[in-house]
Design a protein that fits this description.
mainly alpha
């Protein structure tokens, strides 16, 4: 068993943690969506009150990159597992 296959066997066994990471990442997006709505509508509830808070809520978009990578790896692991089961 090569290093590549060992990694995917390990990753497949940890799939629940990958799903949990995506779950947390998606829930972090909720305050970001409210902040963006406030920005576009111009209510002034959240946007513009504190520049550090604005920077953090704007930077949440970068977390989506992690979510995309995790989902891609989880899907690949699942498809690899299904393919191996069909071959047996």
């Amino acid at each position: 068993m090569g290093l590549w296959n060992k990694f995917w066997a390990w990753y497949h066994s940890k799939t629940i943690y990958a799903i949990l990471a995506v779950f947390i990442t998606q829930w972090i997006q909720v305050p970001h969506m409210v902040w963006t709505l406030d920005l576009y509508i111009g209510l002034g509830w959240i946007y513009g009150i504190n520049p550090i808070l604005d920077w953090l809520l704007y930077g949440v978009d970068l977390i989506e990159i992690v979510s995309i990578i995790i989902i891609t790896m989880t899907l690949y692991s699942y498809l690899k597992y299904r393919h191996e089961r069909k071959q047996k």
